[in-house]
Amino acid sequence: MKTTFNGTPYEKLFKNLPEINEEDDKENIRVFRQWGTSYSDQLRHTCVLCGKKVNIESSVSNQGRRLICIQCIYKYFEGVYDAVFEWNKEG
User: Fold this and answer.
1) Cα–Cα distance between 23 and 81 in angstroms, integer?
2) CB-hemisphere CA count at 13 Å for 19?
3) What is the biggest distance separating any 2 CA atoms in the chain, rounded to whole angstroms?
4) Among residues 76, 16, 70, which one has the least CA distance to residue 47?
5) pLDDT digit of tens for each residue in the chain (91 aa)?
6) Separation of CA 51 from chain center
7) Of 8, 19, 54, 90, which is least packed with CB atoms within 10 Å of its CB?
8) CA distance 25 to 59
9) Which residues contact residue 8 at a Cβ distance below 8 angstroms, ignoring those fewer than 6 apart?
């Protein structure tokens, strides 16, 4: 079982996440398909966990899917990017 630096199991992190905003998720995917990483500083995406408008440079996603902001990475994933990537694979 994978754990964070603090010893928290990834599964526990995933269970404590807020509900994903499915509409924002669909829109982020659409926008990513349209723009890719061009003009990556533009605030055209929305974090699916907190609703904050973000750009590609200050977020993590899988081609727009399950896009989350840096603040949510630290708040919900204890700053462990590997946990974010695992969560992205599971969904």
Assistant:
1) 24
2) 3
3) 39
4) 70
5) 899 999 999 999 999 999 999 999 999 999 999 999 898 899 999 999 999 999 999 999 999 999 999 999 999 999 999 999 999 988 7
6) 11
7) 19
8) 13
9) 78
Q: The tokens of 75 are what? A: 């708040």
Amino acid at 62: N
Structure tokens at 87: 């969560």
Residue that has been written with the tokens 């727009």 in this structure: 64
Contact 64, 73 (CB under 8 A): no
Q: How many CB atoms lie within 10 A of CB 29?
A: 18
For residues 23 and 46, give the distance between their C-alpha atoms in angstroms, rounded to a whole number: 10
Burial class of 21 by CB neighbour count within 10 A (0 to 12, 13 to 18, 19+): middle
Least Cα distance to 5 among 89, 91, 88, 74 occurs for 74
